[in-house]
Structures are given as C-alpha cells and as structure tokens.
Design brief:
alpha+beta, 5-stranded mixed beta sheet, elongated
C-alpha cells in the first residue's frame, strides 16, 4: 500500500491526497573530520551524489542526443522528475518497467494500480496519464487529417495505442463521412475481459446524428489474440444488415490485440 503523507507540501497549491511522493534520498558526499569549509568537499571525486547533477545530465542527453538515446526507464525517470522535484526517481522507474514490461505499458496501466504503487501519488500518476493522453491525441490527429482507408497503417497505430493494452473489452465505432474522413471515434460499450455488448440500433442512430455514411467497427481482445469469434462475425453481419437499410456502409470490423490486429474484411468475413 502507498505510504500516507503527513500533510500537503507547503506552497505547491495541491490538495493532500494521502499518498507520499518522495523518491529514495540520495547520499551526499561525506564531510571529512576537521573540514571548515566546502573546499574539501569540492576536492572529492564526486562533490555531490545528489540528483541535481544527474538530472541536468539527463536533460543534456535528451536535448543533444535525442530521445532515442534514452532507455525506457530513463524516459520514465525523467517524466517522474516533474512530479518529484527532489530525490532519485531511477529506482522507481526501473521498478515500474519490471512490473509492467515497458514505457508504454506503464502509461497504459490502470490508474488504481498506479495509485497502489509505493512512491506514486496524485502528481506522478497525473503526469503518466497526461503523457498517455497526449500520445493518443497526437495519433488521433494524424488519422483525423487524412482519408482513413488510404492511411490504414496510421489508423492501426492509433487503434493499437488506444486499445492494445486495455484489460477490459470495449467496442468502438469510427464514423466516416462520404469522403471517408473521420467524423468521430466513440466508445459505444465497455464489457468484461471477454465480452462487450453491441447494439445495432444505437450505433446507427448515432451515425444518423453525425450524418455519417460509413462505419469501421473496432473492439479489442484483452487476451492479446485478435482472432474473431463466431459472435464477433455474427454481430458484424447484424450491424451491416441494419446499416444497409439506412445507406450506411460497414467498411470493416477490426479486432485489436496486444500489438496485433485482424480485419474481418481482409479475412473474407465481411
């Protein structure tokens, strides 16, 4: 369980949340007996082992060598700098990578689990979720600005980012206009780890409200296996038949796993 903080940090304007967000304290260079000034300390090989010098070096590495020079744990370590002005964030970053597997997996981790992690609190969890949201906004903007069917790879990148690491199944619909530009990407239903209900009437009602002429159905398989089930295929055909009456075309139904996806149209199932 997270450690309880005694009180909110003074002057930062934040409300106390009950979660302590302090990284492991660094060991300062020892002062020798008889030292009367900082001169003797400065003569040591490492005058300070505190995080300030390390943070400056990390920033320099990022800005001079680029983000590809940073390992996943270093990216996470630097992100935590903003939530933890003092202390060493490297052990916490490495622990999160060990637990979840990678930088993207940490960002996509459930909020409740992150709050239950010792050392993380409202500031650090908010920072993680802000970066996740920014990444999704960027990926979605690239899809919104182009004709969807002609930019399939970018669409799959976005859907994998949005759904690939979700632990609960959800059903989304991409509503397209007559030129196959994206009008809206909306979550229609959330279900369990292996089932999500989809209601053709509600989907098509929403399509008419948006003046959409085509749909791409999307849902995820939290198991990571994007192979369609019989129920997936039957539900797709129900929506396709209902849409035909209203001149709304179902272009495809994409099932997303963890880094993989299946198109029912490409599989000859639509």
């Amino acid at each position: 369980m997270p450690r309880r903080a005694g009180r909110a940090a003074a002057g930062d304007g934040h409300i106390a949340t009950g979660f302590a967000e302090t990284a492991a304290p660094a060991l300062d260079a020892p002062r020798r007996d008889g030292d009367a000034s900082d001169g003797a300390v400065a003569a040591l090989p490492f005058p300070s082992t505190g995080p300030q010098g390390h943070r400056a070096r990390m920033r320099e590495k990022l800005l001079t060598r680029g983000p590809d020079a940073l390992a996943d744990y270093e990216l996470l370590e630097m992100l935590l700098f903003f939530a933890m002005p003092k202390g060493d964030t490297k052990p916490l970053a490495k622990g999160l990578i060990n637990r979840y597997g990678g930088f993207a997996d940490v960002l996509a981790a459930p909020q409740g689990e992150l709050f239950a992690t010792p050392g993380l609190g409202v500031h650090s969890v908010a920072a993680l979720k802000l970066v996740q949201a920014a990444a999704l906004r960027l990926a979605r903007a690239r899809v919104m600005q182009r004709q969807v069917l002609g930019n399939w790879d970018q669409l799959m990148d976005y859907l994998n980012a949005a759904l690939g690491r979700e632990r609960i199944e959800q059903f989304r619909v991409l509503f397209l206009d007559g030129k196959n530009h994206l009008l809206a990407d909306e979550v229609q239903a959330r279900g369990t780890v292996n089932h999500t209900p989809a209601y053709p009437r509600e989907i098509l009602k929403r399509a008419l409200e948006l003046h959409a002429t085509a749909l791409i159905l999307v849902h995820n398989h939290p198991s990571g296996d994007p192979a369609p089930s019989r129920q997936d295929v039957e539900m797709t055909h129900e929506i396709e038949e209902a849409g035909r009456v209203l001149a709304v075309v179902v272009h495809d139904h994409v099932i997303v796993g963890d880094g993989r996806w299946t198109s029912l149209r490409r599989e000859g199932l639509l």
